[in-house]
Amino acid sequence: MSGRIVHIASNTFREAVRDRVLYNLIAFALLMSGAAILVGQISIGIERLVVVNLGLTAVSLFGVVIAIFIGIGLVSKEIDKRTLYTVLSRPVQRWEFIVGKFFGLAGTLVVNTFFMALGVFAALLYVSQHFHSTDGWVLVALYFIILQFLIITALGLLFSTFSSPLLSAVFAFALFVIGTFSEDLRGFAGMTHGITRWLATGTAYLVPNFSALNVISSVAHEQPVPGHLILSNTAYALVYAATALCGAVLIFERRNLK
Amino acid sequence: MTAIDILGLEKTYSVGFWRKQPKCALRPLHLRVDEGEIFGFLGPNGAGKTTTIKMLMGLVYPTAGSARILGMEINDPRMKAQIGFLPEQPYFYDYLTAGELLEYYGRLSGVASKDRSRKVREVLDRVGLADVTRVQLRKFSKGMLQRVGIAQAILHDPRIVFLDEPMSGLDPMGRREVRDLMEQLKHEGKTVFFSTHILSDAEALCDRVAIIHLGELRSVGAVVDLTSSIEGNVELVWHGNKVPAAMNGLGAECHVTGDTVRAVLLERNQEAALEALRREQLRIISLIPVRTSLEEYFVRKLQPNKAVAGVTR
Q: How many CB pairs (< 8 A) connect A and B?
């Protein structure tokens, strides 16, 4: 990775860390984990299930909110505030700027997930008194959540290169919701015929398949995650994020910064 | 050596939502700036100055034409390492301190890590911000941000500095300091290309200026050549309070003050005016050529048919 990408990424990370909204979200996620403990106490016998389910869902949702909230402004805010001018007038290529921004936000989300995961494991330890070997699958679920964040970040960045923050947020959130139900969309496509089938199938394959990346429920039920799923999900998320990132670069390379 | 060579750079935007209409922001512009000179790019608001600078910085793509800076294409990263740029009304990452911002820009410009901290200190000292190195930019005034902008433009010791309205937002002292800084840069052998609509700054600083209006280049040259190229005025003062009728026909602007009359008229009408005064037997006190200012030249270039004549008391 070029040095300039690293500098842009670290500056993006620094911006997110100094943004107070980020701390509020983390605090809220930790509160959710605390709430999981309370709910666990009134759910006799299924405390672990409730804690894993609620905790990981909170990590996922708040991470997605952070990814969309910051991702959509990564480029448009720089254009609006004209901070971009003094960066791109230096020996910085436009693609380096986009890639640097992506890694900066991705890094921020990984660090956030780490701290939020600490909250989940603390809640798990509280309700179970000790860790089980099956708790290792929680780490896999967290890894999949990070893969989701990579896709969302890349999509947010893509929308940010040509749209306003509000519209970008709507697009990114809509894709997240549709992607979460992409398996159902594929099932629906299988039941239809003609052009509806083509449209439903096309949409199901075009939107990110967040269904496959969501193993929270099975992990909560202490079911193992197959190795091939880890590999295929990793490849899928990386290819999807890279494609969205390429789209962002292609649009941004052609854009006039008025 | 040529620092900036603009070869027919042109920009047309499409405006409107449904029915796109072309809007010409810059007509084909040909301009050459030599290395080591302070070059003023003058024009009223909306003339096309910022559009031109943005195209040179690679921020806006030209519709046609090209430009070379230090002999290199405008998107060549090697060229960008040798230029500095201050945008109009600059805004920076306000969560950073002045020191952090310059460190960041230093990294992006490829300033060696062993020199970076020293250069940041030196440049902040040079723009008078040495005391606020650790203060976040969100606490800076507009004038201080302008100074930070100038600091980041010269941090990496560029050969050419592009300044878009550098005096904007500065108090008289600040403007004076920026003028001094631009002269220092010239003495260091750097080329300064700056846009402004404050003509007194351009007149005091520039080796050459270009005047642009409505996206079209109107004139280029040294200030003295430009101002002497248009017909000058003379100031004629005589005793008494009588203004001969012939003066109005000569387009003279006359002011009667006490027992003297002061008239400003075109140089070519000087002899006829003197003759009229002699006919009326009025005593001439003085006849002085009036130096044409850049502002006057600018106004005439933009409004060529404007003529004023009359008497005030």
A: 77
Total domain count, chain B: 2
Name B22's Cβ contacts closer than 8 Å, sequence gap at least 6: B12, B13, B14, B15
pLDDT score of A167: 92
Strands B160-164 and B83-86 turn out to be parallel
Answer yes or no: do B156 and B305 share one domain. no
Quick one: B205 and B263 in the same domain?
no
DSSP calls for A109-163: HHHHHHHHHHHHHHHHHHHHSS--GGGHHHHHHHHHHHHHHHHHHHHHHHHHTTS
* CB-CB under 8 Å, A14 with B96: yes
pLDDT in tens, A107-163: 999 998 998 898 888 888 888 888 888 888 999 999 999 999 999 999 999 999 999
Contact list in B for residue A90 (CB cut-off 8 A) is 80-81, 105, 108-109
Percentage of chain B modeled with pLDDT above 90: 65
Lowest mean pLDDT among B18-22, B171-175, B195-199, B264-268: B18-22
Residue A32 sits at φ, ψ, to 5 deg, of: -60, -40
Cβ separation B95–A91 shorter than 8 A:
no
Question: Which structural domain, as residue segments, surrounds residue B306?
Answer: 229-312
Q: Are residue B11 and residue B97 in the same domain, yes or no?
A: yes
Best of A80, A89, A95 to substitute, by most chain B Cβ atoms within 10 angstroms, is A89
B chain contacts of residue A257, beta-carbon cutoff 8 Å: 54, 59-60
For residue B306, pLDDT beyond 70: no
Nearest to B77 among A11, A85, A93 (CB): A93
Given B195, B228, B261, the domain boundary residue is: B228
pLDDT tops 90 at residue B16: no
Q: What is the CATH number of the domain that holds B129?
A: 3.40.50.300
Q: Are residues B10 and B116 in the same domain?
A: yes
pLDDT given at position A18: 87
- pTM of the predicted model, to two decimals? 0.86
Question: How many distinct structural domains can be found in chain A?
Answer: 1
Domain boundary among B201, B228, B255: B228
Same domain, residue pair B152 and B238: no
Q: Please say whether the beta carbons of B31 and B6 come within 8 A.
A: yes
CA nearest to A90 within chain B: B80
